[in-house]
Amino acid sequence: MVDLSYPDSINKNTFVALNKWNFMARFFSLPKNKRFTFTPRYYDERAEMRKERNEQIKREVDAEKEGKKSRITKEEMANYIKMSRRTQKKSNMRLLVILALLLAIFYFFLIK
User: Fold this and answer.
1) DSSP code of 9?
2) By residue range, what is the domain housing residue 87?
3) How confident is the model at residue 32 (pLDDT cuts 50, 70, 90)?
4) Which stretch of DSSP H or E encloses residue 11?
5) What is the mean pLDDT of residues 76-80?
């Protein structure tokens, strides 16, 4: 038979409470991650160097394309700013003409 007597220094209620806490700690704890170790069986140094060189060339080509794109966008922005200034000037001129016409009409009505 198994003796389930409690230690003398801990009373029954404390022993049960400790067991509950141990159960809850085990219930909410996550399992440990499993280790994955993989060692490649074959390594081709030339292929790795070739692959690395190809990636470097692609990065350089992409950088050149980005440079061209940035120049194109700068030119487009300059053209857009010029066009917006022209339209703003035209709009201001229209506003001045309309204001002058309204003032002239208002002046003629006040005189008569």
Assistant:
1) T
2) 48-112
3) confident
4) none
5) 84
